[in-house]
């Protein structure tokens, strides 16, 4: 049941994309910030309603049920959380978004006949998994489920390099063959890379890393938009990836830190601020 | 959509993304991050498409998991950002009131 023809679908996606741009601009200024957030929520609502009205969808009751479950879990937590615990909640929401992007890419692998589409799939898988696992570690650090001090062990750079090399090798094979087992391996390697990336970061630098992982998730969402041929996902993901990168640098500068120093300080033998 | 159009849109979106947040004040860093975080929850649209095309029960199960995760990102993200900004405004209003009281006391 597609009620909307492709032209109306594209127009509504364009409206949603413009709302996201206005939302980010609104959020950049104290006077308009709250309105900006509401405009963003409205843009998201338009996007979700449009996909229901335009795409040929089966399993609609199941999908609606899953949306109810997701909202019923997230909304009360977001409404009840203490102010001091908000950063780790943002980290958690960012992580599940990255996880969702990775799962979407994984399921699209069997439909992808073109190597370029499979390239977008491996990118989404890897970055989504890094964001999911990295956000999980930042959540654990901020929630004090683990030590907030930098976790560094001898050989960390070697392990990280091995994981990344294996990930690149697996990614190349998936791009050329579309192998599902290797895509799953890539997912696992991405999770490992996310954990290894965030472990050496000290508690004081964690908010900057959350912002960086937020930009990563944006890029994963943009790549999943390429996979699905969905312009709204491409635009929204790219906007978050680009603005998140600028924001990460601004946050690091405001704290007198450098992003490279935070991420690679431990790998160079130094340690980051605890 | 062909690859060249997608590439064009992506490159333009990068510049728009750079531009819209270039003048953010440092007090708004965390709410802006949280708002951008909510926006990438729009991956929900992708999860819905994949779930709507699923024929195999396993594929449907994984796709529905993606729908739940994406909804949590989207709904939770906007709600928590709104709360952050609400506190921000409340604190600022309280600050102004205190300043007014001080001015009255003078």
TrEMBL record, chain B:
Its EC number is 7.1.1.1. It is a multi-pass membrane protein. It is an enzyme of class 7 (translocase). The keyword Glycoprotein does not apply. The chain crosses the membrane at residues 32-51, 58-80. Keywords: Cell inner membrane, Cell membrane, Membrane, NAD, NADP, Translocase, Transmembrane, Transmembrane helix. InterPro entries: NADP_transhyd_a_C (IPR024605). This is proton-translocating NAD(P)(+) transhydrogenase.
């Amino acid at each position: 049941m597609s009620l909307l023809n492709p032209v109306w679908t594209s127009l509504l996606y364009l409206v949603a994309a413009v709302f996201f741009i206005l939302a980010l601009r609104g959020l950049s200024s104290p006077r308009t910030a709250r309105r900006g957030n509401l405009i963003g929520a409205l843009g998201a609502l338009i996007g979700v309603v449009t996909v229901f009205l335009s795409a040929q969808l089966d399993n609609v009751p199941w999908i609606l049920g899953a949306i109810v479950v997701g909202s019923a879990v997230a909304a009360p937590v977001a409404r009840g959380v203490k102010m001091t615990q908000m950063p780790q909640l943002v980290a958690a929401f960012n992580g599940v978004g990255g996880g969702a992007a990775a799962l979407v890419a994984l399921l699209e692998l069997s439909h992808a006949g073109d190597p370029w589409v499979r390239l977008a799939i491996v990118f989404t898988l890897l970055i989504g998994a890094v964001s999911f696992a990295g956000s999980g570690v930042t959540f654990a650090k901020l929630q004090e489920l683990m030590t907030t001090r930098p976790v560094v062990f001898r050989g960390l750079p070697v392990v990280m390099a091995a994981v990344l090399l294996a990930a690149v090798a697996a990614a190349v094979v998936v791009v050329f063959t579309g192998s599902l087992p290797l895509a799953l391996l890539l997912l696992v390697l991405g999770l490992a890379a996310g954990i290894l990336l965030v472990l050496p970061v000290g508690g004081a630098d964690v908010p900057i890393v959350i912002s960086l992982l937020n930009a990563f998730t944006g890029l994963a969402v943009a790549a999943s938009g390429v996979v699905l041929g969905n312009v709204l996902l491409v635009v929204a993901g790219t906007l978050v990836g680009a603005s998140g990168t600028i924001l990460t640098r601004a946050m690091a500068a405001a704290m007198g830190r450098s992003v490279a120093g935070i991420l690679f300080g431990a790998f160079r033998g130094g340690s980051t601020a605890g | 959509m062909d690859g060249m159009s997608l590439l064009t849109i992506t490159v333009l979106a990068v510049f728009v993304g750079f531009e819209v947040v270039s003048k953010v004040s440092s007090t708004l860093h965390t709410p802006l991050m949280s708002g951008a975080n909510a926006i990438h929850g729009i991956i929900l649209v992708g999860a819905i498409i994949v779930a709507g095309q699923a024929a195999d029960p396993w594929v449907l199960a994984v796709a529905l998991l993606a729908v739940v995760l994406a909804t949590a990102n989207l709904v939770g993200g906007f709600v928590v950002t709104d709360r952050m900004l609400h506190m921000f405004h409340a604190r600022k209003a309280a600050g102004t009131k205190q300043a007014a009281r001080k001015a009255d006391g003078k």
